[in-house]
Amino acid sequence: MRARYAHVPKLRWETMDVRALGFPSGSFDVVLEKGTLDALLAGERDPWTVSSEGVHTMDQVLSEMVEYKRATLRDEDAPETPIEGGASPDALEVGFRKGTRHLLGSHTRLELVLTGVSLLLAALLLGCLVALGVQYHRDPSHSTCLTEACIRVAGKILDSLDRGVRPCEDFYQFSCGEWIRRNPLPDGRSRWNTFNSLWDQNQAILKHLLENATFNSSSEAERKTQRFYLSCLRVERIEELGAQPLRDLIDKIGGWNITGPWDQDNFMEVLKAVAGTYRATPFFTVYVSADSKSSNSNVIQVDQSGLFLPSRDYYLNKTANEKVLTAYLDYMEELGVLLGGQPASTREQMQQVLELEIQLANITVPQDQRRDEEKIYHKMSIAELQVLAPSMDWLEFLSFLLSPLELSDTEPVVVYGMDYLQQVSELINSTEPSVLNNYLIWNLVQKTTSSLDRRFESAQEKLLETLYGTKKSCTPRWQTCISNTDDALGFALGSLFVKATFDRQSKEIAEGMISEIRTAFEEALGQLVWMDEKTRQAAKEKADAIYDMIGFPDFILEPKELDDIYDGYDVSEDSFFQNMLNLYNFSAKVMADQLRKPPSRDQWSMTPQTVNAYYLPTKNEIVFPAGILQAPFYARNHPKALNFGGIGVVMGHELTHAFDDQGREYDKEGNLRPWWQNESLAAFRNHTACMEEQYSQYQVNGERLNGRQTLGENIADNGGLKAAYNAYKAWLRKHGEEQQLPAVGLTNHQLFFVGFAQVWCSVRTPESSHEGLVTDPHSPARFRVLGTLSNSRDFLRHFGCPVGSPMNPGQLCEVW
């Protein structure tokens, strides 16, 4: 599954229609000082550097226009701003009206003076509005959009642009520089971007729904959702219980050498409880999913796992990560002591656990070496797995994990990484039983401490500060609880979200856009000179067969079907810790239930409220949850240039994943098999090598990107942008040119690329940036913009970037 998504020649302003600046013809005297206008028209001023004398004045007029329309047209749509904190979706309108009533109270002398000033300002504003209206009507083509939605989105774009930077020098800084200046990292956050902002907004909506005093649902699953959320909010009860729930659980499993007596002959029983009943992942992870080579059936799958820190690099590069390793050991010790261990003994034993994790890191295969799925896929029987990794009884373990199913030693298992499992088996055999026990229980502790009292949360915050650079956590409890509820009952929560927010017409429009982007992608396939006809035809058939899912799975709006999904999961309002334990046990049963059933298209890997999207190769499907079908990615009343540059690029990105270095290995039915002709495969690898080398040259804080690790996402970014832009051009050919936004000074073609770039405006701590470089298959936001646009012939043409400029280094890396 894949988720989440240059220099130009100087523009020849002297030959451009002035409406390309975004203003109606002849309206410049309203927004520009005459000297500035004369300088622009004479070519003596660079339009990208005009600020306070030029566009800034227009910003003020636009801002006043928006406020004027809000004050007089109360029935129009509410402002498209994130809902803060616990405010209800109606809070903005209610707050505005209260303020208005207050201003119309008793009249003191000061108030009378202020009233007079206000009337004078209103008269001036009205004059500006009339002037704009006159200029608008003087423009016979009405090429500028002056609706409130256009004014509002123009203001948002202008608020982000850094006009002191030329687009061909650094398009990311040009598009996002002012946004970065205006958006310092919020307390407790290691990064902040559009995705975070939208998720915060979605969380506020969900809070409002779950805390509504009139909450009443016919669905038991939805009622479970509210009970779960409220149990998480019961902080006093959680503090009262303290560490006791986890202490009791550890005793039930057989004890922990760090906190007391333990069963020394109990390795298999502890492993079954920790990895089976409570779904932790020591040493390896086991799950049930579609068989990559037989995608119509599910199969048991085993893969490498077992590290707490985000990447093996943190364990192996000890010099660079000394602070992180020390903070991690401090965290391990603190949690052990909170659970009853003695400080000195706990630290000594946790040091042994850390050394075991370092050994695991040594045999863990780096992600950039696991990109060829054909090479790492190994199907065998449980009996053959037993020979490969004999340190444990696999039939006993898997039978417990998938109870009540009956398994035999002929049951097929897909293993990803035979060498790893063989070596981990040897490591288990050579490790002291006490260290194995400490490691297994430590995995259980990691899994469950987020359900305990504030002391455990404080201990984690100290580690996160070192690991990600977060200075302090100010996350409200309700927000943490919404995230936990999303993890536990995400589709029941999604039912509430969709019924409250999702516009069915948006689904229809999104489906139409996907169709247009698919057509554009297939047309580009026909123009590839490096692909032979047989492979091209198979690729076209695969693109045709891609199944798109928009908004949400239908079952969430059917109460009985939704209830059936969560049938067997017991939720109490009294114990958050027990609710989490029940969830782990329930998820194990769901996994067992899937093994003998075929994969279902209704089984989404993301909840409807998620701000993301994905492509799943075994189903050959692309999924766009309702959570991402919002501004700035998409809005019905935004220019098509912005919608295609936003959600359109996301759609193209996910579609292109079907043809990246991993997705291309799967055929149209979702089966992993070779379907490319050798000459086309060699050409594909040659083109992707260019892109791998390109991105490997980029640096963040002196640290290079891993072009191999990020290759699939970079291919998708580049292909997605091209497909979306070609689809936008096709839309224009069919519907004609659309109106331009006022004041932004961009043609609609340029607006497409600015809209794309501003989706990725982001700020991040140095520590978080480092973590992203070693773990994330995506390039950092800055290079998702710069790398992609420097490969785009359309971008370079519309911004006129000459060869040799930073945005046009001369060599373009193109795959699709």
UniProtKB/TrEMBL annotation:
Cellular localization per UniProt: Cytoplasmic vesicle, Secretory vesicle membrane; Golgi apparatus membrane
A Pfam family assignment: Peptidase_M13_N
Any one GO CC term of the record: transport vesicle membrane
Gene3D superfamilies listed in its UniProt record: Collagenase (Catalytic Domain) (3.40.390.10), Neutral endopeptidase , domain2 (1.10.1380.10), Vaccinia Virus protein VP39 (3.40.50.150)
Membrane topology: Single-pass membrane protein
PANTHER family: EEF1AKMT4-ECE2 READTHROUGH TRANSCRIPT PROTEIN-RELATED, ZINC METALLOPROTEASE FAMILY M13 NEPRILYSIN-RELATED
Protein name, per record: endothelin-converting enzyme 1
